[in-house]
Amino acid sequence: MAHILEIKYFNSFTLKKLVEKSTPTPNQEGSWPGLPWNPSFITSTGIKKTYPTFPWNSPNKDAEESTNWYVEEARIKGGFNNSIVDLGVRAYTVSSNVDQVSRKSSLIFSGIFNNRTGVNNTNVFSISENIIKDANPKHGSIQKIYAEDTNLIVFQENKVHYALINKNTIYTGDQGAEEVTGVSKVIGQLVPYLGEYGISRNPESFAIHGYRKYFADKDRSAILRLSRDGITEISAYGMRKYFRSKLAAINDDRILREVYVPITPNLTSGNYSTLILPNVDGIEVGSQVVAQYINNSDKKDIVTPYVVVGISSPTSIAIQDLNQTTLPYAVNPTEGEIQGFKFRMWRRDKIYAGYDAHNKNYTLSMQTSPRFVSTADISFDTLSFDENINGWTSFYSYKPTFIDSLKNKFYTFIDDEIYQHYVAQGNNHCMFYGNTTPDEASVKLIFNPNPSVKKNFNTISYEGSNGWEVESIESSFQGFDDNLEYHDVSNPIKSYAEGAYLENGVTLRGGFDRKENRYVSDIINASGVRPGEVIFGPGMSGVKGYFTTVKFKVDSSTNVGGMKELFLAGSNYVMSSY
Q1: What is the average pLDDT across 226-249?
Q2: What SS3 class is residue 354?
Q3: Please, which pLDDT band fits residue 349 given cuts at 50, 70 and 90?
Q4: Boundaries of every domain in the chain
């Protein structure tokens, strides 16, 4: 029976010996003109077979090949001056050069696409035309391109250019630079923007609104804006030191990350091509599957040859072996029961960014680990920049995987879910990212009038909705004494409703009170005693320091989930007497 046999050499021929007759006689030998007989292959009956019965993919394939002859020859029949064996006619070829070239700083373009005439040459790359535009390789690889009007903005690691589309620039002695549209140029001259800035290796930090483009240059510890006046370092607006330390913590190397999912009940011996898990949050297609066994209270990780190939539901994933063949997952009963699974993925740190079209802010999130590894506060920093004041206005407590706006609505993504911000419908404020406790909404403010003057902050007030309380008030750091850090703190201040109590039939307020539609309260000091300090704690009024940090938080009983606004906050202070 015929089968496909792989040819091992370029001009090789496989010559098989004579096939055994259907009714062989003992000691029958096969023959082939010009080839010697190989007497080493003899059956148990003593018959010298000339064609083995092993299938081509059997473990005895080598035995089969030992009965064949491979002749390497460049000419037919092996005669002098005979015709040379060639590859023959090829139906189509583009180039005989099969070497791979990595051109990270080059642009390549295909044929045109015109939906009006039905022309679609986007899969045509003509080698007869110059279809490659090279940027300077010393500026690193091209990370991002963006088409704007009739220009193409090219972001390299260390430089930003704009390229002219369907036109070129010529320089004349009397008129300077002129754009010429009559030349055949798909991508014209690359013109650099002033400044030695690029986008490093973080194209995910790019965002655009109007004619302003925002991006991060990690290598230079800068957050940048590109507009009509060129590149501006917006991280220098009061945040240079902050971004210098935060961007330095972003790692470009791909790191092995793991997410562990325990399962109940534990899996015993069986076959599984689909795993049913409590949840699949953080698990991605391509993740390596690692089973964790438990045997005699000892945990043991077993690296398996399986990967995640599909997520069919919020609790179900499909797995296959590394050869992409659907095979069941066999549990080894000698290792005990499977207690859970680890899913391994190689990921690098990210700087996600987008434009908040609702508040008109550039929002970015610097993340030192993916969401599936950690959502702790130390694993990310999310903040926004406002063009109206040229400053960074707010930090946020969410850790997204994608940020963008659509038609004046602001969206962020986590894993496979999308959330719309600033939705004011009923009592669902501050309920997103799986957060069902709206009383956790908070905002931190810094009171810093006359920065060089030491002050006593005596009272606190705010304008806004009922339902705000002060969780903490903390003064500026005042130095170390006997290796102890000193700063003043105050007692929490209850909201207007939660601070109410009755005394002799009269309602009094133990927190904020309302006067002339403004909520006010005094500050009760709660600091511990310091060496040599005479008056401390409740015996003194307010907190002292150059500045103080106040954390406002919504209470847990006033209009839960409803809208609460905070327009303005302030404090009455006096200069310190010492």
Answers
A1: 94
A2: strand
A3: very high
A4: 1-88, 106-192, 255-347, 443-575
Write the DSSP assignment of 119-159 as a string of letters.
EE-TT---TTS--EEEPPGGG--EEEEEEETTEEEEEESS-
- Classify residue 240 by its DSSP letter: H
Sign of CA dihedral 372, 376, 381, 382: positive
> 566 falls in which pLDDT band (50, 70, 90)?
very high
Q: Is the dihedral of CA 408, 413, 418, 420 positive or negative?
A: negative
pLDDT score, position 450 = 87
Residues 329 and 351: their CA atoms lie apart, in Å, by: 37
Nearest residue to 209 (alpha-carbon basis) of 409, 400, 405: 405
Which uninterrupted H or E stretch holds 63? helix 61-65
Share of the chain above pLDDT 70, in %: 70
User: Are 277 and 315 within 8 A, CB to CB?
Assistant: yes
**Predicted local distance difference test score (pLDDT) of residue 201:** 93
Measured in degrees and rounded to the nearest 5, phi and psi for residue 457 equal -90, 115
- For residue 67 the two structure tokens come to 């009965």
Task: Give the Cα separation of 551 and 543 in Å (integer).
Answer: 15
Q: Are 152 and 187 in contact (CB under 8 A)?
A: yes
Which one of 166-175, 368-377, 497-506 scores highest in mean pLDDT?
A: 497-506
**What are the φ/ψ torsions at residue 92 (nearest 5 degrees)?**
-160, 140
| Structure confidence by residue, pLDDT tens digits, 39-87 | 444 444 444 444 444 444 444 444 444 455 555 566 656 666 777 666 5
Q: Which helix (H) or strand (E) holds 243?
A: helix 240-248
User: pLDDT tens digits, residue range 453-474?
Assistant: 888 899 999 999 999 999 999 9
The mean per-residue pLDDT over the stretch 437-442 comes to: 74
Q: What are the backbone angles phi and psi of residue 64, rounded to the nearest 5°?
A: -65, -45
Q: How far apart are CA 274 and CA 277, in angstroms?
A: 10
Among 59, 66, 74, residue whose Cα is nearest residue 12: 74
Q: Which two tokens stand for residue 509?
A: 């307020």
What's the length of the chain?
578
Do residues 233 and 196 touch, judged by C-beta distance below 8 A?
no
DSSP letter string over 257-290?
A: EEEEEEEEEEE-S-EESEEE-S--TT--TTPEEE
Give the torsion through C-alpha atoms of 6, 8, 14, 17, to 10 deg. Answer: -90
Q: Where do we find the tokens 């997204």? A: 400
pLDDT at 232: 95
